[in-house]
Write a structure and sequence with these properties.
- The complex is a heterodimer of chains A (about 300) and B (about 140).
- Chain A is α/β, with parallel strands linked by helices and about 300 residues long.
- In chain A, about 40% of the residues lie in helices and about 15% in strands.
- Chain A has two domains: about 140 residues, 3-Layer(aba) Sandwich (Rossmann fold), CATH 3.40.50; about 150 residues, Rossmann fold, CATH 3.40.50.
- In chain A, the strands form two sheets. A five-stranded parallel sheet of chain A has the order 7-6-5-8-9.
- In chain A, strand 6, helix 7 and strand 7 form a beta-alpha-beta unit.
- In chain A, helix 5 crosses helix 6.
- With about 140 residues, chain B is mainly beta.
- The mean pLDDT of chain B is about 90.
- Classes of the chains: A alpha/beta (about 300), B mainly beta (about 140).
- At the A-B interface, helix 4 of A face loops of B.
Chain lengths: ~300, ~140
């Protein structure tokens, strides 16, 4: 079973992933993981730290073996097509994890491969395993989604994680506030989609104010997106999560981030009990173990 | 006054949005290799819309499937099948539910623009289409 786009999942599918990830968490805690046979191929045509390593680690923890495709030393350099590359790797592996800069690449790969394909990020489009682990993290840390006040903060226009996360949060009935500088707002089509599909009631703001928030999910302001560098600097400054922004927030408010963070969260905030992004990254292991296992079950 | 011959057998596409006639020809796949006569009239005076394009294609009856593709660029176009000099069928172009192998995804980062694969789009509310690869939504008129 492929995992290509979060938009194709229904609530019951996501809940099934939660249950499976929880089971994996228990097995990891007991150090008794049910082993699986087979080989996972990781095909990353773009840089990655967390997604690639956590898929590889998840596969190894499940007792599977990993083969790693490196674009720079492959026959792609000789001009081999995407289709031939996927068909070849398909013959060597039981599951394929792919990250590629072109949008729709994972879907196309799934049409060439017999093995299940897991999308590890296709350009600015989808990153479904990240969304699943983000939602799993929220469920673990905060419990019920209904009534949860979540702020998505930063460059909401370009960050693929934010678009899918908005979809997932709306699916489960969380209250979402979209906080972005003018020009970097969430794409109107993504906003309209969740309003129509889930009846989502959203708030919008250009100003940072964490009062009342249960969760603040931050992503980087991308300086390269601005024509006016002075404006970019001023936006980056405004959207850096300074320690003083945390005064007066709820005691149990958590800050999440898909990582890598560059300078949008200073080291002082890392030490705050609100900062939970490294715990979030660790949840990539049980969730990706669950995703691999489910993919193999068909 | 400009005059164009009537056709005995073929298709007349009328009420094409002014300026879109060439795109309709492209959608029909008709070019210089087509063996029969084709007339494209641009900016013909129209009581309803001020001006319109009209296309007369001799020798083929345009299929319902292709008729619906015309709606992508000209939703009010009508397609008349002519046999023996008479109109035997008149139909209105309607936006198709699914489009495959026609048009181009406007997203330059979409994989269908870099690999040799047929495009595919699914209709969404309010005359929109979603690309089957990059999942982005576009207006119907952006696809051709």
């Amino acid at each position: 079973m492929d995992l290509i786009s979060f938009r194709e999942l229904e609530k019951k599918d996501v809940e099934d992933y939660f249950q499976r990830a929880e089971e994996m968490d228990h097995q990891l805690a007991r150090k008794k993981v049910e082993k699986l046979d087979g080989i996972v191929a990781t095909m990353f045509f773009e840089p990655s730290t967390r997604t690639k390593l956590s898929f590889q680690s998840a596969a190894e923890r499940l007792g599977m073996q990993v083969v790693d495709f490196l674009g720079e030393t492959s026959s792609l350099k000789k001009g081999e097509s995407f289709e031939d590359t996927i068909r070849t790797v398909d013959g060597y592996a039981d599951v394929i994890v792919i990250r590629h800069p072109m949008e729709g690449s994972a879907r196309l790969a799934s049409e060439f491969a017999k093995a299940p394909v897991l999308n590890g990020g296709d350009g600015g489009n989808q990153h479904p395993s990240q969304t699943l682990l983000d939602l799993y993290t929220l469920k673990k840390m905060k419990g019920e989604f209904k009534g949860m006040n979540v702020q998505l903060v930063g460059d909401l226009k370009h960050a693929r994680t934010m678009r899918s996360l908005l979809f997932g949060l709306s699916m489960f009935g969380a209250n979402v506030k979209l906080v972005a500088p003018r020009g970097l707002e969430m794409a109107p089509e993504a906003v309209e989609e969740v309003k129509k599909k889930f009846g989502a009631k959203l708030e919008f703001s250009e100003e940072i104010d964490f009062a009342g928030a249960d969760v603040v999910y931050v992503c980087r302001i991308q300086e390269e997106r601005f024509e006016d560098k002075y404006e970019a600097m001023s936006m980056k400054k405004k959207f850096t999560i300074k320690p003083e922004y945390l005064r007066g927030v709820k005691n149990d408010m958590i800050i999440l981030h898909p990582l890598p963070k560059i300078d949008e969260i200073p080291p002082e905030v890392d030490k705050s009990p609100h900062a939970r992004y490294f715990d979030q990254a660790r949840n990539g292991i049980p969730m990706r173990m669950a995703i691999i296992k489910k993919a193999l079950e068909g | 006054m400009l005059t164009v011959d009537t056709i005995d057998n073929g298709t007349v596409v009328d009420h094409i949005k002014a300026g879109m006639g060439r795109k309709v020809l492209d959608l029909m796949g008709i070019d210089q290799n087509y063996p029969h006569r084709v007339a494209l009239m641009i900016n013909v005076p129209s009581k309803k819309t001020g001006k319109k394009d009209i296309l007369k294609i001799e020798g083929i009856l345009v299929s319902d499937e292709k008729t619906d593709l015309i709606a992508l660029v000209s939703p009010k176009a009508t397609v008349n099948h002519i046999q023996g000099g008479k109109v035997v069928k008149k139909s209105q172009a309607e936006l198709p539910e699914k489009i495959s192998g026609v048009g181009k995804c406007p997203n330059p980062k979409c994989i269908c623009n870099s690999e040799k694969v047929p495009t595919r789009f699914t209709a969404e509310p309010a005359d929109g289409y979603r690309c089957g690869y990059c999942e982005r939504r576009f207006a119907a008129s952006e696809l051709v």
